[in-house]
Amino acid sequence: MTIDTPNGNITPFYEIKDTTWGGRSCFATSDIPKDTVILEVNDTTGSSIQYEFRKEVCHNCFKYNGKSMKYKIKTTDVEGLLSENNKWLKARMKKFCGAGLWFCSTGCSDTYLRIPRIIDLIEAYEILLDNHTKMLKRNNPDDANEEKLNSVKISQSIIDSEWRNIEINWLPMIDKMKYTKRQQSLPITSEDEYNCARFVCNTLFHLRTYTKDTETGKSFWNLQSNELNKMMRFPILLHFQQLVFRTLYILLPETLRIDFNIGTFRHIMGSEYGNAFGIWQEDESVDSREYFGYWVFPRASYFNHSCIPNITKTRNNKTMYFTLNKGVSQGDELCIDYSGVLDFTTVKRRDFLKENWFFDCQCTRCKLEI
Ligand SMILES: C[S@@+](CC[C@H](N)C(=O)[O-])C[C@H]1O[C@@H](n2cnc3c(N)ncnc32)[C@H](O)[C@@H]1O
């Protein structure tokens, strides 16, 4: 059974309500039989393929066969899509490198190229690729400083004040600079920052479609942010985020920079920590499947975790399905498994959730076992 509602975007199977134990959660609105697909989503607001899989995973359907994908976007594919606004790309067409996108078939690259205004994202990706190629030739000072950057003390006021510093001092300084001087102010970045910058571009691009008056856009802006928890655990992330922000502020083309500001950037990053789903290899067991990257589906981000989940997540190409693995009664909480460690002992499992997801699990199994 799949969802079939008049507007296709609100499931009739559950309602989202506040709880006293774990923020908002989803509750069945009626008795629902096993095997019902209670949510089906393909409206990602942002996705990212891991750097090491960038050539081996199709950027359209996420197919993987252990080898480099055969198809890249060609200059001739892009020429017809260019508009007045793609000034950078127009000037650089002869040197076009494929924007770091690989596909399993011409069908997949054609489908990708048919996404409305995809040229704006291709342009941003190509700019980042060009910058990354230059960065590869430079020594990254952070490699030696990692330990120091990870020992910084983090609190909400420290995070806020670091961003205020960027806003008050760095932005006005950059705004005054001419193009060439701005380029010289680009920070040195590595593969991780390059990949993260691509994820932010991807999100900015999708948020043009999923505006605040759409169900997906509304859900995106309502996502819980895990900025503080994540940075307290990995202090280096504050420095990392600022490198990505500064890179994007200097490089983003006009078409994607309209809604780009510190607030949006922090929400994109903060909500990714704790809400993103893994893009896992299909048709492989949990123990041997590859992790290709992650993506955000705001409408699917209201499921809490349970160590005896009643929902199973699956992926088919670009769609995720949330299917009941047992029958539920009206009012039951509907939960997924975040962790993949349900076989661990109670203590280990709870420690894992605390370490990686920053919460003390309040599910019925944990309550029973402790
Ligand atoms: C993907 S969100 C789920 C929706 C979230 N409750 C909300 O209001 O946005 C994940 C967050 O929900 C909370 N959460 C999820 N499962 C939980 C559980 N079993 N026990 C306690 N808190 C939980 C944690 O704060 C976690 O960071």
From TrEMBL:
Gene3D superfamilies: SET domain. It comes from the Eukaryota. One of its GO terms (cellular component) is nucleus. Residues 12-339 form the SET domain. This is SET domain-containing protein. It comes from Maudiozyma saulgeensis.
